[in-house]
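Progress against Task 2.4 (sequence-to-structure conversion) is shown through the following example record, which the project officer requested during the mid-term review.
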Amino acid sequence: MLRPIHVALVLSLCPVLTGCSSQQVPPSAGVESELKQLSEKIDLLAVRLPAPREPSSVDSTHPKRDSTSDFASLLKQLSGKIDLLAVRLPAPREPSSVDSTHLKRDGTSDLAWLLITNDPKEKAALVSRRVKQSGTYDRLSIENVQGAFADLEGLNVILNAPEGLDLAIVQQVEEARNRLVGLLRKDIPRIVGELDAGAVKAVNYSEARRLWAQSSSVLGSYPDSNDPFEAGRIQEMVSSHELVHTRFEVAQQQRYNLWACQQIRKAWQDFEANSDPGARMSTCLHFLGPIHPGLLDPLPLELYRDFLQTVHGKLSRNLYQELSEKLAVEKRQMLSDLQDPK
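Structure tokens generated for the chain above:
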């Protein structure tokens, strides 16, 4: 494939080559002079380029005319120089995969337009608006902490692409960013602590999970840091937050075991109070069916098995087989299903 430089040079030679036929008509002195001038220009351009990575087999010396040289030889040497020059040229850049020509200001966010526009005044206005918005936060809460973190991310984007901005504006952005970082680091531990405390005290399991999920989201907005002290503080907060999750999960597990023991006790009472095999089967299905044995601690699980062993000895083989099949497909309560055990 011809490079652009080949095309340009060929086009420049078209007037020279016009009228030349396959009969090898000797060139005029004017044509030879133009070719020699073109060769000298190529040599001067080649000197300004970096040295080739590998030695080239193409001879870049000036073409010499003698009694045996002809017009075709001169063109061949000139073509070799062009090839050598093309090899030493840098590779063309890949076309950008982002096409912003179809974007319009009304349908583009301020931050995206800031990266697209080349108008310094427009850039300055957009940045000033961002800086002013970041200064509206005095005390963070669960309602506005995500917004503050988003504004911090926007300021970081501006600092990573400050082209077209005055130094004074860049300094304002950095000051606004540092202010938001300090505010987030000061208020997020307080917000996370309040939400985690509510999760531990919540009687309702779903409420505890909701509060803990909110706390996780807030904690995720805490600014990163390479400072060892600050990194240690972050790790301490994460560990404390995970411990809260373990605490209310263990509490729910205890509630579930207590509920299962109460179900088994009621099953014992009803089973002993009835002598009808059908009524006994219904009792087992009603009280034991919702219990998931895989969620029981060792002691409640042993109680569950003891009851089934007693039932096995008092029901016929067919009835016990039928009971086992029905218990296997009975809908069971999970930890999250048990909201207010009695």
